[in-house]
Amino acid sequence: MNWRIKPLDDILANAERRSLKRSLGAFQLTMMGVGAIIGTGIFVLTAEAAQKAGPGMMLSFVIAGFVCAVAALCYAELASMVPVSGSAYTYSYAVMGEMIAWIVGWALVLEYAVAASAVSVGWSNYFVGLMERSIGLDIPDAITKGPYAGGIMNVPAAAIALLVTSLLVIGTRESATVNAFLVVIKVTALSIFVVLALPVVSGANFEPFAPNGFWDATGLGIAGAAASIFFAYVGFDAVSTAAEETTNPQRNIPIGLIGSLALCTIFYLLVSAGVVGSIGAQPVVDAMGRAVPPGSPEFATICALPENAQALACSGEPLAFVLDLLGWDKVSQLIGLAAFLALPSVILMMLFGQTRIFFVMARDGLLPGADTLTKVHPKFNTPYVVTLITGIAVTIFASFFPVGVLADIANSGTLFAFLAVSIGVLVLRVREPNRPRPFKTPAVWVVGPLSLAGCGFLFFSLPPATQLTFLYWSIAGLVVYFAYGFWKSPLAKSRG
Predict the structure, then answer these.
(1) What are the phi and psi torsion angles at 24 (to 5°)?
(2) Residues 6+ apart with CB under 8 A from 444
(3) Torsion angle of alpha carbons 175, 180, 184, 190, nearest 10°?
(4) Burial class for 208, CB neighbours closer than 10 Å (0-12, 13-18, 19+)
(5) 3-state secondary structure at position 24
(6) Residue 347 pairs with which residues in a beta bridge?
């Protein structure tokens, strides 16, 4: 079988011919990574983790962080070897061939575009809460929630998605500068939360530690929460999509990947301890005493009951909610304001990553209208066509779907891409052992298989509906590939 593997030397040469402007350094990349990672996962999905795992979410954060750590080490090696845009898609093209690369690129659409939609919904939750607490403005559910929760359309989520899309069209350096400022706001907000919540931690709030057990077929339990909270770490790989716009990428890309992940892991463990230990994190249950999956209509009904008004699992803005219960009313408003200001930086990085994936796939001739999609704006030097297309899609998803469902779907695409990277780093160690590796994954024959096993475990811990969604999405991608890309690919033409 002709796998149509694209040699690394060809990938590097093609990138040089139609490359993007290099303007990002190690500090900017690290800040971009932190900006992409710290966001809806910790500011919003903490509540979803509480519903799935209760206090056991602490262990969920550790599991998800470990899987991301071993995957990041694999990413760092490939990113240093292939410093061009495209992330896992490009790496797969060089290692496993065109069809696998297409599936990975198609999966990355779920990671970045759907993740941007999820964060937009998370931002909307904090925006609505901030308006209610600070100025007493009660915004109707009809325009702040999707149909799943009795609304019509999430207008604030749609508005922020369009605003960030406009910023990305203006330019990469300008976007990175704004992002660095917002990262400072987020780190400051989380630091304040930790300082106020940890001193009032009570051991009693950790019991029972795992009310839903470790694993459940419906996606509940510690494993299910880890699969969801994995979203809190997603984003570090977006650093690798900026390789073509990075100065000295062999050095700076690994620094950005590993540095941003390390900083965020420390914060997450401290924040989750504060959340669980200060007010408790037990799931809400139905009339039969059973926990129900978050994001479902039944969950929305249970959370509407008066007795669940102070349940962490039902909060759309859990960190501000915790401080509110602890009596820090004004500070909770500041936390809400910080999320309001800072979450757009995550949307920015997700959109940034998605547009660069589309840009490279179009440049490889696998998408229709490649000449149009690869157009770079004459003034701003950005791939503005794919940016606008992606921004519109993100806006539509954000308008109508719940944050938890979107996050799980995004995770399915991410985990598949991580699997491909984990395989790729091992294959290249065998196939091209002498190729220069500015960064080498330590103990690669331990780290690589651990990454593979961890990603597979988290994928099969996602809700069954999410796994089916990914399957259907992959099938649709293959139809598109065999209808166009398979026949139009430059590799197909060159090899007859």
Answers:
(1) -110, 135
(2) 74, 77, 425, 426, 429
(3) 70
(4) exposed
(5) strand
(6) none
Residues in contact with 338: Cβ distance below 8 Å, sequence separation at least 6, in sequence order: 185, 186, 188, 189
Best CA proximity match to 299, nearest among 119, 51, 55:
51
HSE, side-chain direction, 13 A CA sphere, residue 299: 24
Measured in whole angstroms, the distance separating CA 455 from the mean position of its chain's CA atoms is 14
Dihedral (C-alpha) 327, 330, 335, 341: value to the nearest 10 degrees? 160
Determine if residue 376 is left, alpha or beta; phi over 0 gives left, psi from -120 to 50 gives alpha, anything else beta.
Answer: beta
Q: Contact at 8 Å (CB) between 36 and 350?
A: yes
Alpha helices (H) in 364-443, listed in sequence order: 370-373, 384-400, 403-431
Q: Would you list the domain boundaries of the chain?
A: 24-458
- Dist CA 364 CA 492 (whole Å): 11
Q: How far apart are CA 165 and CA 394, in angstroms?
A: 9
Task: Specify the range with the lowest mean pLDDT, choosing from 194-203, 374-383, 423-432, 480-489.
Answer: 374-383
| DSSP annotation of 235 | T
**Distance (Å, rounded) from C-alpha 456 to C-alpha 349?**
25
pTM over 0.90: no
pLDDT, tens digit (0-9, with 9 covering 90-100), for 43-75: 878 888 999 999 999 899 889 988 988 998 888
Q: Which pair of structure tokens corresponds to residue 463? A: 């809700």
Shortest CA distance to 462 belongs to which of 52, 51, 41? 52
Q: How far is CA 293 from the centre of its chain?
A: 21
CB-based contacts of 75: which residues, under 8 Å, 6+ apart? Answer: 88, 236, 237, 240, 257, 421
Give the Cα separation of 142 and 236 in Å (integer): 35
Distance (Å, rounded) from C-alpha 417 to C-alpha 428? 16
Q: Which CATH architecture has domain 24-458?
A: Up-down Bundle (1.20)
User: What are 316-348's pLDDT values in tens digits?
Assistant: 888 988 998 898 988 888 888 888 887 887 788
Query: What are the residues whose beta carbons fall under 8 Å from the beta carbon of 283, sequence distance 6 or more?
Result: 50, 51, 52, 54, 211, 212, 291, 313
Note if the bond before 208 is cis, omega within 30 degrees.
yes
Q: From CA 230, how far away is CA 406, in angstroms rounded?
A: 13
How crowded is residue 209: how many other Cβ atoms within 10 Å of its Cβ? 14
Q: 413: closest CA among 164, 157, 230, 165?
A: 230
**Alpha-carbon distance values, 6 to 264, 378, 479 (Å):** 35, 30, 21
Q: Is residue 154 a contact partner of residue 126, using CB atoms and an 8 Å limit?
A: no
**What CA–CA distance (Å, rounded) separates 11 from 22?**
17
For residues 237 and 79, is the Cβ–Cβ distance under 8 A? no
Distance CA 314, CA 168 (A): 33
For residues 409 and 112, the answer to whether their CB atoms sit within 8 Å is no
Secondary structure class of 349 (helix, strand, coil):
helix
